[in-house]
Amino acid sequence: MRILLTGRHGQLGAELERALAPLGELTATARDTLDLAQLGAIKPAVAQLRPEVIVNAAAYTAVDRAERERETAFRINAQAVRLLGEAAAGCGALLVHYSTDYVFDGEKPQPYVEEDAPNPLSVYGESKLAGERALAACGCRHFVFRTSWVYGPRGRNFLGAILEAARAKPVLRVVEDQHGAPTSCHSIAEATARILAGGAGAPQGIYHMSAGGETTWHGFAAAILEEAGLATPVVPISSAEYGSAAPRPRNSRLDNAKLARSFGFALAPWREQLHAVMQAID
User: Fold this and answer.
1) Strands 53-56 and 179-180, bridge-based pairing
2) Taking 80 as the threshold, does the pLDDT of residue 282 lie above it?
3) Residues 113-166: pLDDT tens digits?
4) Count of alpha carbons within 13 Å of 276, Cβ hemisphere only?
5) Do the beta carbons of residue 57 and residue 13 sit within 8 Å?
6) Which CATH number goes with the domain that contains 135?
7) What total of structural domains would you count in the chain?
8) Inside any domain, residue 176
9) Residue 281 lies in a domain
């Protein structure tokens, strides 16, 4: 299997490079070899490699900065995705792409299913939704895996920010009115490799892929400190008290039943994933 992986230096890309390597001939690219912001480079790169599978882990993920960098967010998260999809269609490749819970507005009281109508609150969410729709329109075979609250032992993410803050501040103030499932890069990468190894014949389209269970950002922070053996107090606050350039959905819970039905497995509960990541840090 010839696989093209984009975004190898990102937190998800690094895990995917490790997980996908045993599946075949893997070409992993980063900005210095395939910068998705350079739209004209995408189709020639795919045509040269002629992959059987493209796994797109490259993305613009600066949620707050996207509010003032709309053009850049859409170039990477939508226009580049459309070009990847067209290139995949041209060479008959399967395209695996990752999206987000932020395509929803968070007003639904239950976990979101794939058929629920998106209504993003932020530029980031709008750009990711535009990428999903571009893939659906371009005619390539594709899987879109929507996930939530992604973190890992490397890169800029909530886990690293909490550990750093807990060692520098006497008390932490963390939002408690947003609900979701923290999902580790390792779990996403392992699930992707498992699907490509044996389940790539399942119906194409959108699947929700997030950790089991749910918590709040406050609950996640408290669990991180417990795992790390740190006693820094964590004070719950509201989203309004925290303030941010981009609004976040209050309910980011995703229903993963379709993934389980189609591929025969589900991701581990979020607390179990966190423990495994913390063990890797140690």
Assistant:
1) unpaired
2) no
3) 999 999 999 999 999 999 999 999 998 999 999 999 999 998 789 999 999 999
4) 16
5) yes
6) 3.40.50.720
7) 1
8) no
9) no
Inside any domain, residue 173? no
Q: Cα(20)–Cα(194) distance, rounded to whole angstroms?
A: 9
Q: Determine the residue type at 188.
A: I
The pLDDT tens digits for 206-219 are 999 999 999 999 99
Could you tell me the two tokens for 220? 């996640």
**pTM to 2 decimals?**
0.96
Among all residues, which ones are annotated catalytic? Answer: 124
Calpha distance 67→64 (Å, rounded): 6
Write the CA distances from 219 to 68, 93, 248, integer angstroms: 30, 41, 17
27 by Cβ neighbours in 10 Å (0-12 / 13-18 / 19+) ranks as middle
Summarize pLDDT for 18-66 with one digit per residue, the tens.
Answer: 999 999 999 999 999 999 999 999 999 999 999 999 999 999 999 999 9
SS3 184: strand
Note whether residue 80 is domain-resident. yes
| DSSP class of 141 | E
Are 58 and 36 contacting, i.e. CB atoms less than 8 angstroms apart? yes
Range of the domain at 54: 2-154+183-212+254-267
